Amino acid sequence: MEFGAEMTERIFHRHGVRSRVEVGRRPGRAGRSDEFYVRWAEAYIDLLARGSRSPIKDLARHPPVKIDGFDPSARKSEGTVRAIIQEARRRDLISRPPPGKAGGELTQSGLELLSAISRDD
What we know:
The chain has one domain (34-120): Orthogonal Bundle (Arc Repressor Mutant, subunit A), CATH 1.10.10. It has helices spanning 5-14, 34-49, 55-61, 77-90, 108-120. The protein is built from five helices and no strands.
């Protein structure tokens, strides 16, 4: 007896069932662009260069980019800022600091993206 994908297709077809379901666009908010994250990363690094001892808190109080639903006066906004900086690191826009320390530098891809953004402005 024959088993596998071919047999499954035949059985499904016989009973009027499609085995491959076409998936449309997923619901929910679209993701944010690299441009969004590099602007936050740039502001974070700038605060560090100016001597900020708590750049996440400072960014939460004075965000460089408007985010719908982001309330700088809310305590949870620090977590949002931290997640944004972590995502910028994941996207290789900012380097990783030593464990337990604030820091990092814009990576080559981050610098190139900022350069492209300033040419467009």
